[in-house]
Specification:
CATH superfamily: NAD(P)-binding Rossmann-like Domain
Structural class: alpha/beta
Helix content: 25-40%
Largest sheet: 7 strands, parallel
Strand content: 5-15%
Shape: globular
CATH class: Alpha Beta
CATH topology: Rossmann fold
CATH architecture: 3-Layer(aba) Sandwich
Number of helices: 8
């Protein structure tokens, strides 16, 4: 069964995947409004509302109807500056976004997690992602879609030598380890948003590749 979202809330619209998803959303004629809080201003669009500032401060002030929410927030301990700062973004802020989106009326949340997400993992990154997923499940969403891609391909705002060296190899890696282009991930997320299927759906990397073609 398919449902066309009309009022969208998106977090992380300036990130590698989020900016492609935002472009996708703004080209969809069925969408009446996209609410995209960001730190830096976005290009103006007649159907875009863009409150600016730190997301944690903006969340209580967001208003208006929302039926579908996308969370494209993603960081790392290296980017955030510490393991504690990483957890504050990829766990605490994601859960706060989920709670606020639910309060605003959203019935479907789509979130970008990670292939390795596991609350029992010995790797801090994977553990935080897994605990984030468990936290969202506990929020009681009518429909929760968790996307678990591998590494995203493409240029990032911050220069990361390891990513530059690994991107060509990850394009060739077979199966569920193969990295995904952010534009393909955006296509996959939009197609998943159109599906009305109550409950929790976890979408692994291989299915994301298929949906993103």
């Amino acid at each position: 069964m398919y449902l066309t979202p009309q009022h969208i809330l998106i977090a992380g619209a300036t990130g590698l995947a989020g900016e492609h998803l935002l472009d996708r959303l703004l080209t969809e004629p069925t969408i009446a409004r996209v609410l995209a809080p960001t730190r830096q201003p976005l290009a103006e669009h007649p159907r875009l509302e863009n409150p600016q500032g730190p997301l944690a401060e903006l969340l209580p002030r967001l208003s208006g109807p929302v039926d579908t929410a996308f969370c494209c927030i993603g960081s790392s301990a290296e980017q955030a500056g510490s393991q504690e700062a990483f957890r504050a973004i990829d766990h605490d802020l994601v859960l706060a976004f989920g709670r606020r989106a639910r309060e605003m009326g959203a019935r479907h949340l789509l979130v970008i997690s990670a292939r390795c997400a596991d609350p029992r993992s010995s790797r801090a990154y994977c553990q935080v992602k897994g605990e984030m997923e468990e936290g969202l499940k506990a929020q009681g969403w009518p429909q929760l879609t968790i996307a678990r891609p591998t590494q995203l391909l493409g240029p990032r705002r911050e220069l990361r030598l390891l990513d530059q060296l690994s991107d060509p190899l990850l394009r060739l890696t077979p199966g569920h380890y193969r990295a995904i282009d952010p534009c393909a991930l955006a296509r996959a997320l939009w197609r998943l948003a159109l599906e009305e299927e109550d409950g929790i759906r976890i979408v692994e990397a291989e299915e994301l590749h298929r949906l993103g073609r």
